[in-house]
Amino acid sequence: MIGRSREEMAKRLAQDIDDGAYVNLGIGIPELIAKYVPEGKEFIYHTENGLLGMGPSPEDGEGDPELINAGKKRVTELPGAAYFHHADSFSMIRGGHLDLSVLGALQVSMHGDLANWSTGKADAVPAVGGAMDLVAGVKSVYVITQHCTKNGAPKLVENCTFPLTGIGVVNRIYTDLAVIEVTEDGFQVIELSPNITFEYVQEHTGALLLKPRS
Amino acid sequence: MRTKIVPNAPIALADIKDGDTIMIGGFGEAGSPIELIHALIDTGATNLIVINNNTGSGEVGLAALIKEHRVAKMICSYPKTANSTVFPKLYHAGEIELELVPQGTLAERIRAGGSGIPAFYTPASVGTPLSDGKEIREIKGRNYVLEYGLTADFSLIKAKKADMHGNLLYNKTARNFAPLMAMAGKITIVQAQEIVDLGQLEPETIVTPGIFVQRLIQISAPVLESTLVADGATYP
User: Between residues 35 and 74 of chain B, which touch chain A (CB distance below 8 Å)?
Assistant: First the structure.
């Protein structure tokens, strides 16, 4: 196996979140981040269906079926938690009150455009959820994703070909191969995963990469 | 004072007509008023426009209403969920219309509709297919899309506790869209687990003030969608 595992990617991203940050984690790899809060830090998790101060999932068969996360899985409330309705929840999102949104991606462009809700196939039932609101309003948007699709196609591209979730919204990308910042000049590699070369990452990327500044 | 308490769901829903717009509370099964939805199926009302975040699961509740071909159009943000098979089938067959709305836009459209705000600008969906054909306006250097408020002939919601005036409390994340839909429904019908006397709820903690509620029924032990789906239940 080459590069970071999903767990290692989540652990790496967690290092970059500030103590006390209000964070919304998307479904999939982003959910793993909650397992890797660095020692001495506390993150407050927001779930857009109406809870701040979300705690981990309860044991199987435990918990309340009406205490769930955005992925409709049972979760718990931590001391200091608050419940609210959907309009308040999305005021937190759109109003710029949340510090960080971590999302998965189908494609990210060198301009920070994100496509993560639809492959545009005619036979698919389109579903968007809160992704477009999150990228439009949260202060920082980090993407965590495999560098390439299962078929080896690059997910980091010059221009997204899938329907967009938002334009110029992604700040950083954490993949199995590298940590990449979206800058005015394009994709700036800021860190390579252990035993991964810049050239290898470039070969697996659909746009020009800027070398890490030493 | 005329009471808001109605003896049962069939009486509460008796005046729902074909073609009505119905808001149904819930995010997945959390807050889904299953008993009211089943009573809605029993009314036979059809050609409905239904507003809910999802499209139900299994063949109970909202999914059952859709399966019975009572819904002409769904307005929602996420029509596919685990065990959600009924909607995709009808959608692919061209038998149901879908208006897909970002989740926060959906919530705000409902709040606006219930608040006398006909439309508003939001940054969500600008530059995506979901803003195609909509008015875009630049405000202070950023583009926003015009979205219209939503109202409904009836809103069906679930509460944990109500008093005789219709003041409501909810259970955890079951609150979700309910307080907004209560405002946006011309007639809001609530199924509450418990209905208490006036003075029994602490005024400082009321989530939905009773002015937004027109009819109340008590369902002491509401069934859960996931339990019904696990049992392979269908409705009717």
Answer: none
CB–CB of B3/B197 below 8 Å? no
Strand partners, B208: B168
Max alpha carbon distance in chain B (Å)?
55
Nearest to B154 by CA among B40, B65, B236: B40
Least confident of A88-97, B23-32, B75-84, B149-158: B75-84
Q: B199 by DSSP, 3-state: which? A: coil
Whether A166 and chain B come into contact, CB under 8 Å, resolves to yes
Question: Is A48 one of the catalytic residues?
Answer: yes
CB contact at 8 A, B156 and B38? no
Contacts for A1 with CB less than 8 Å, ≥ 6 apart? none
The pLDDT tens digits of the residues spanning A14-52 come to 999 999 999 999 988 999 999 999 999 999 999 999 999
| pLDDT class of B227 with cuts at 50, 70, 90 | very high
Is domain A6-210 in CATH 1.10.10.10, yes or no? no
Q: Which residues of A touch B87 (CB under 8 A)?
A: 125
ipTM of the shown complex: 0.96
* Domains identified in chain B and CATH numbers: 9-104+150-230 (3.40.1080.10)
Residues 6+ apart with CB under 8 A from A151: none
Which residue does chain A place closest to B223, by CA atoms? A65
Burial B167-181 (b: 16+ CB within 10 A, else e): bbbbbbbbbbbbbbb
